[in-house]
Design a protein that fits this description.
The complex is a heterodimer of chains A (102) and B (212). Chain A has 102 residues and is an all-alpha fold. Chain A has three helices and no strands. The longest helix of chain A has 31 residues. Chain B is 75% helix and 0% strand. In chain B, α3 runs antiparallel to α4. Chain B is globular and about 70 Å long. The chains are: A mainly alpha (102), B mainly alpha (212).
C-alpha cells in the first residue's frame, strides 16, 4: 500500500515545477500551461486526501471535479485574452503588455 | 547546404530538447524493466505509482524547460495523462475519466490552437533569463517546504474503499447542487466572454451601419 506522503510529495514537486514555469517563462501560453500544472497538483492533493482521510464523504473528489471545470473555463477565457494581446501587439510575450506599468 | 546546419547558438536548445524527449521515452521503459527485475519486492500499485511519478515529473520538467512551444504542449499532455493514472490509483475512476476527457481532449487542443493562432515564437533561452535564477530559487524553496511538510506530518491514514459512481452522482447532485449550478453559469459566462474577447474587431463602416 502506498503511503499518503508519496502523493503529497508528488503534488509538491509538480506544484513547484509549475510555479517555476509561471515565473520563468515569457510567452503567455507557456505561463498558462504552467498554471495547468499547478492546478493538477492541487487536484492530486484533493483526491488523495479524499481517498485516505475522508472515507465515506469524498468531498475532495467533487472539489477536484470543480477545479477541472474552472480550469477549462479559465483556459478558454485566457486564450481569448492572449489572442487579443497578439492582435494588438503582434506578440504573445507577457512583457509586451506593459501599458499599465508606470 | 552548410548554412542549413544548426548554428552554435542553437546547439544548447537542441541538446535540451533531445535530452528531454529521450528522457520522456526512456524513463518509463527503464522503470518497467526495473520493476520486472525487482518484481518480488515491489507491489503492482507501487510500480504504477512510480511509473506515473516518472511520467508526471519528466513531463512537468519538459513543459517548463523545453524551448519549443509545441514540444512543451506535448509534454503537458504526458503530465496530465500521468495525473489521470494517479487518480485511478486513488480509486476515483470518474475523476480520471473526466481528466482525460477535459484535459486530453479539450484543454490541450485549445492551447495548441492558441499556439497556432498567435504564431508563437519559441521561447528564447539564450537571450532572456534574468528572472530564471530567482524563479529557480523560489520554486526550489517552495518545493522543499511542501516535501518536508508532507514527510513531517502525521496523517494516520487508511485507504477507503472504491466509491461507486451511484453514490458519487447522488452526492454531487444532492449535496453539491448549488455549486454545480454556479459552475454551469460560470462556464456559460466564460464561453460568451471568450467569444466576445477573441472576436475580430469590427470595421469602422460596419460600426456606423449598425448604429444607423
Amino acid at each position: 500500500m502506498i503511503p499518503l506522503e508519496n502523493f503529497l510529495i508528488l503534488s509538491g514537486i509538480l506544484f513547484a515545477t509549475g510555479f517555476y514555469g509561471v515565473l520563468a517563462r515569457r510567452s503567455a501560453i507557456l505561463i498558462l500551461m504552467s498554471v495547468e500544472l499547478m492546478l493538477a497538483a492541487v487536484s492530486i492533493n484533493f483526491v488523495a486526501f479524499a481517498t485516505y482521510l475522508d472515507g465515506e464523504a469524498f468531498s475532495g473528489m467533487i472539489f477536484a471535479l470543480f477545479v477541472i471545470t474552472v480550469a477549462a473555463a479559465e483556459v478558454g477565457l485566457a486564450l481569448g485574452i492572449v489572442l487579443r494581446l497578439f492582435r494588438e501587439r503582434r506578440t504573445s510575450y507577457v512583457d509586451a503588455a506593459d501599458s499599465l506599468k508606470w | 547546404m552548410l548554412e542549413r546546419l544548426p548554428l552554435p547558438a542553437q546547439f544548447d536548445r537542441i541538446i535540451i530538447a533531445g535530452g528531454t524527449a529521450v528522457a520522456l521515452v526512456l524513463a518509463p521503459i527503464v522503470l518497467v524493466l526495473l520493476g520486472l527485475l525487482i518484481g518480488d519486492q515491489i507491489s503492482t500499485p507501487e510500480m504504477v505509482f512510480w511509473l506515473a511519478f516518472t511520467v508526471i515529473v519528466a513531463g512537468a520538467l519538459g513543459t517548463v524547460l523545453l524551448p519549443n512551444i509545441v514540444h512543451a504542449a506535448l509534454s503537458l499532455i504526458a503530465t496530465l495523462l500521468g495525473v489521470a493514472g494517479i487518480y485511478l490509483l486513488l480509486a476515483s475512476e470518474f475523476i480520471a475519466l473526466v481528466q482525460i476527457l477535459v484535459y486530453g481532449g479539450g484543454v490541450v487542443i485549445l492551447i495548441i490552437f492558441g499556439l497556432m493562432m498567435t504564431n508563437a515564437q519559441d521561447d528564447p533561452i539564450v537571450t532572456d533569463g534574468s528572472q530564471k535564477p530567482f524563479a529557480f530559487i523560489v520554486a526550489l524553496i517552495l518545493g522543499s517546504v511542501f516535501v518536508a511538510a508532507a514527510i513531517d506530518a502525521e496523517w494516520g491514514a487508511e485507504t477507503a474503499a472504491v466509491i461507486p459512481f451511484r453514490d458519487f452522482g447522488a452526492r454531487l447532485f444532492r449535496d453539491f447542487l448549488v455549486p454545480v449550478i454556479i459552475v454551469g453559469v460560470l462556464l456559460d459566462i466564460a464561453l460568451s466572454g471568450g467569444i466576445v474577447n477573441a472576436r475580430a474587431p469590427r470595421e469602422p463602416e460596419a460600426e456606423s451601419e449598425a448604429a444607423s
